[in-house]
Amino acid sequence: MHVLTVLDHPNPKSFSHAAAHHFMMGAEAAGHTTELADLHAEGFNPLWTMADNESDGHSNVPSDVVREQARIARADAICLIFPLFWWGMPAMTKGWVDRVWSWGWAYDQLGDPEQSMQRNRSGLLLIPAGARSDEVEGKGYRAALDTCWTQGTFGFFGFSPRRMELLYGSKGSEARRKALLEQSYTCGLTLPPPTPA
Ligand SMILES: Cc1cc2nc3c(=O)[nH]c(=O)nc-3n(C[C@H](O)[C@H](O)[C@H](O)COP(=O)(O)O)c2cc1C
């Protein structure tokens, strides 16, 4: 498979970068080719503007969106890696989703999110989070994020299979972070292929 990793963090020394690196190493060990979209390093503009609003998804598509869509077109599997911010996506990832997966290209207000306009791709959300698993799972945050992102966003993306992996306690001890990086590697190594159409 060709695996696209979309990374959102400005600091090359961050845990999120290390997680992306380990995920990609795992994917390569499984025999996949990899490509990294390092959104901060590349200066992606996350602001959804009039230019995005005026495009119908086929004509007048902003050139930076065309470039990201070309990346998606050549990918069989896509992994989004971003730190959990305020129980949501950081602005860069949110803007990439808003602008690139546009109306008329990714979806067109279909009743069934399983019927994306895009072909099936394998999808993974790999999310470093400062909180511990008991806090995230016990208070219902995990279930809420899974509904919104795995079922909602990834459903409209046409991802199948799709899942969310939270890297809990990413601000923790060295041992904890090492275990989380191994978890990231395993996610790359065991990435499933897209469900046949
Ligand atoms: C603005 C901001 C908001 C955050 N919000 C949350 C949050 O809602 N839940 C959580 O578990 N961690 C939260 N964190 C912690 C980050 O998820 C954590 O810093 C990150 O996973 C650590 O990895 P990094 O070294 O790649 O930044 C937040 C951090 C920042 C800077």
Describe the structure.
- This is NAD(P)H dehydrogenase (Quinone).
- InterPro entries: Flavodoxin_fold (IPR003680), Flavoprotein-like_sf (IPR029039), NAD(P)H_dehydrogenase_qn (IPR051545).
- Residues 1-179 form the Flavodoxin-like fold domain.
- Belongs to the NAD(P)H dehydrogenase (quinone) family.
- Keywords: Oxidoreductase.
- By secondary structure, the protein is an alpha/beta fold.
- The protein has a single domain (2-189), classed as Rossmann fold.
- Helix content is 43%, strand content 18%.
- It is built from eight helices and five strands.
- It has helices at residues 15-29, 39-42, 50-54, 63-73, 91-100, 133-138, 141-157, 174-189, and strands at residues 2-7, 33-38, 77-81, 121-129, 159-168.
- The protein has a five-stranded parallel β-sheet with strand order 2-1-3-4-5, sandwiched between helices.
- Strand 1, helix 1 and strand 2 (33-38) form a beta-alpha-beta unit.
- Helix 1 runs parallel beside helix 8.
- The longest helix has 17 residues, at 141-157.
- The protein is globular and about 50 Å long.
- The mean pLDDT is 95.
List keywords for this structure.
197 residues; alpha/beta; Rossmann fold; five-stranded parallel beta sheet; 8 helices; globular; binds flavin mononucleotide; Flavoprotein-like_sf; NAD(P)H_dehydrogenase_qn
